[in-house]
Amino acid sequence: MSWTDERVEILKKMWGEGQSASVIAKELGGVTRNAVIGKVHRLGLSNRAGGGTKAPAKEKPAPKTAAAAKPKPAPKKPAEPKKVEPATQSAAPPKQPASARNKIIPAGQPLPPQPSANEISPEALASVREVEKGAKKLNLMELTERTCKWPIGDPATEDFWFCGLPVQQGKPYCEAHVGVAFQPMSSRRDRKR
User: Fold this and answer.
1) Taking the chain, what is the end-to-end CA distance rounded to the nearest angstrom?
2) pTM of whole model > 0.90?
């Protein structure tokens, strides 16, 4: 089937009259409803004129008997995967690993509250300042499982780096930064007063 000028004119006329794509496809013969819709869109006819009239719907004859031949069922399409609905309150939520993405702060946003100098013991603070003088000053791509990942500076500036000294066993930071990061709650509370 090809769209001859004559068939296109019939399509335009019937579409303008408000005929459905199915009716137009039957009238033209040899084309599907979807082919008609596609041609309508390619021709830019998708917006119908408001004054068109629809073809009167044909009345269906009453079924003669229950034993009348049934139309052939349409071929089955492969089943689409079902969409999974969000879990209800009664179902346990799926466990997801903690992601570092949840903690990323876009550039230009204020940083989360950091422990202030009065929350860190003076000994730990002095130790950290001394350690940072001799730090390796690594960038993100240079970090390994054996290097301290303590961030120093503002990530939005060029003067941002990671400590990079050897980590304490089982911790992500060097000994000095572990002393700052993992303080007992009671000692922090006492220093605030």
Assistant:
1) 87
2) no
